[in-house]
């Protein structure tokens, strides 16, 4: 797993998001082992507590689970959980504002669907 860190977001958040993306995109599969906290820390030259913060958020949400003495693994339901969370975020961040702006402009639902359909082609 290769994570590219940048300065725009906290490192723990970048690690968390890139693990999530790898699960959604199929690069990390259910029951697959992810790097340990120490592996993250060594590879990216960061404090282990930083890596631990990002991974623990995934553990708390049921995306990753720990096997004592063995490592951390992608949970069987991780992809489904992440997709459902992202759908909810998509609706609140993109769809609701889109519908509100369309209503302000007098765009009907049918016109909006037609506009979206043209973008898919």
From TrEMBL:
Coiled coil: none
This protein's UniProt keywords: DNA-binding, Transcription, Transcription regulation
Domain HTH gntR-type: residue ranges: 9-77
Keyword Endoplasmic reticulum: no
SMART domains xrefs: HTH_GNTR
Matches recorded under PROSITE patterns: HTH_GNTR (PS50949)
Name under which the protein is recorded: GntR family transcriptional regulator
């Amino acid at each position: 797993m290769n994570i590219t860190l940048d300065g725009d977001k906290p490192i723990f958040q970048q690690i968390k998001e890139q693990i999530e993306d790898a699960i959604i995109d199929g690069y990390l599969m259910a029951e697959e082992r992810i790097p340990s906290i120490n592996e993250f820390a060594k590879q990216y030259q960061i404090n282990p507590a930083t890596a631990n913060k990002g991974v623990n958020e995934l553990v708390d949400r049921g995306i990753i689970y720990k096997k004592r003495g063995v490592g951390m693994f992608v949970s069987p339901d991780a992809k489904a959980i992440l997709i459902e969370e992202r759908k909810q975020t998509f609706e609140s961040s993109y769809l609701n504002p889109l519908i509100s702006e369309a209503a302000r402009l007098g765009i009907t639902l049918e016109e909006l669907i037609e506009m979206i359909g043209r973008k898919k082609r």
